[in-house]
Amino acid sequence: xxxxxxxxxxxxxxxxxxxxxxxxxxxxxxxxxxxxxxxxxxxxxxxxxxxxxxxxxxxxxxxxxxxxxxxxxxxxxxxxxxxxxxxxxxxxxxxxxxxxxxxxxxxxxxxxxxxxxxxxxxxxxxxxxxxxxxxxxxxxxxxxxxxxxxxxxxxxxxxxxxxxxxxxxxxxxxxxxxxxxxxxxxxxxxxxxxxxxxxxxxxxxxxxxxxxxxxxxxxxxxxxxxxxxxxxxxxxxxxxxxxxxxxxxxxxxxxxxxxxxxxxxxxxxxxxxx
Length: 274
Prior knowledge:
Elements: H1 2-8, H2 14-20, H3 23-40, H4 46-71, E1 90-91, H5 93-106, H6 109-120, H7 131-134, E2 144-145, E3 148-149, H8 157-160, H9 167-174, H10 187-213, E4 221-222, H11 223-232, H12 236-241, H13 260-264
Antiparallel strand pairs: 1-4, 2-3
Helix pairs in contact: 3-4, 3-10, 4-5, 4-10, 5-11
């Protein structure tokens, strides 16, 4: 299943990862790959990449709303509830660049520099790139201020996949109590919530497959680390568009990287990067 492969870095062997995906999961990945390719076919520019991230997020939001309505599940998430903002967030380069562009449109250079310095100095370990550590790692997101997100509308897909039907359970996990086990009568609803997270991971995977098809490395990034790089380097977007490894310092480590055979299975037509 996708949860296992996410924890181990796309799986120990690429055939296992592909075979573990059900038909509907594969279709989600393929559909997003096709959408990414269509958006990038007009040319590779920062505006185009940001548009890919925006359209993908909007489409994902509509899909999540449809799933919730179909299953009659009501989330308890609301403004000021920030427990999920302490969980590790995986991101794609387009998602990171969209948030960076949004912040630059809302804040001046001095404010951005201050935010970057504040996050860098916030503690000895504001994020981790080690896949094995990420499952239990808790630290405030770089965008968290006064229990609210500074770029909520532009937040990454992984954030959109974090949802809950029990705020006390979230509190117990983040505050370290872990005594709250949740209401057993809500197991069916929790399955829907976990399904939302799975869907976001699949859409992320489809975007990476599309990027691979046009020649970009399909890197899984720690969001806070990657955004910090983008804020400190005003040319980060241009460097990434030129295929420089500007986000190498934010790439999540753990598990072998999948090769051409893996990614080619999600392509609308056979082939590797163009």
